[in-house]
Design brief:
The chain is mainly α. The chain has one domain (about 5-65). Helix content is about 60%, strand content about 0%. It has 4 helices and no strands. It is globular, with a radius of gyration of 13 Å.
């Protein structure tokens, strides 16, 4: 996915969840990304957050620590 599109999507999620009443927007942003973004998207998100954090909504930056990490892939032989 293009970097611009992924950043746009993450920022849109944060903007939408910021306005929900009675819900922690940081937790809601992290939960949404963790539950609905495939591992490749989350891996790209983490890379972009490291590389250019200023392009992200502050909620996305704060939610980073709560987003489900991407597990390293193991080889078919299990090693």
């Amino acid at each position: 996915m293009s970097s611009d599109k992924l950043i746009y999507m993450a920022n849109q999620i944060a903007a939408a969840l910021r306005t929900r009443k009675g819900e922690d927007p940081v937790a809601a942003t992290a939960e949404h990304i963790s539950n609905f973004w495939e591992p490749r998207m989350r891996a790209q998100l983490f890379e972009l957050l490291d590389k250019d954090p200023d392009r992200f909504d502050p909620l996305v930056r704060e939610a980073r620590a709560r987003i489900r990490p991407v597990k390293a892939e193991t080889s078919p032989g299990g090693s």
